[in-house]
Amino acid sequence: MITEPNSAILKRIMPYCAKAERCTLDVVRKLASWNVPEEEMGMIVEILMQEKFLDDARYANSFVADKWKLDQWGRGKISNGLFQKGISEQLIEQAIETIDVEQYISGLEILLSKKRDTIRKDTTLNQMKKILSFGVSRGFEEELIWKWLEKEGLSFDGG
Question: For the stretch 117-138, what's the b/e string if a residue is b when 16 or more beta carbons lie within 10 angstroms of its beta carbon?
């Protein structure tokens, strides 16, 4: 039974956490790649949290800000990304709520307008399909995409 974590491992993992925002899963995977025993991993993660090197809420907020502002991902894709990182549903919801709704809708509209500019020669139906597919693939809600399509006069009526 291990009662104390290996200080050499701790000194090695702290800079890894300080270099970039990390989630618990990232740290556990890194420790596993170094063949650190599971019992020791738990203690190391606990110390990293106590020393503020590791904070999943902070990680989630940072992830949301980066993926929204830099990559222009929608809420669905961001949520899925955080889920894959082992972040709890509660922390995901809290982090997603940090996105300003007006900026979100405005950003979506800009993205969809740019996409439409690249496919203007297509039929209305094909434009709608491509725009909807594009928006959903970026993680945006279908309902918001349909509202934009209607606002732009794109409909099944041949608008």
Answer: eeeeeeeeeebbeebbebbeeb
User: Over 90: is that where the pLDDT of 151 sits?
Assistant: yes
Domain limits for position 80: 56-96
Count structural domains, the chain: 3
For residues 101 and 64, what is the distance between their CA atoms, to the nearest angstrom?
Answer: 13
Cα–Cα distance measured from residue 118 to residue 9, given in angstroms and rounded to the nearest whole number? 52
Across the chain, where does the E strand assignment appear?
none
What are 83-142's pLDDT values in tens digits?
A: 999 999 999 999 999 999 999 999 999 999 999 999 989 898 999 999 999 999 999 999
Q: Does some domain include residue 15?
A: yes
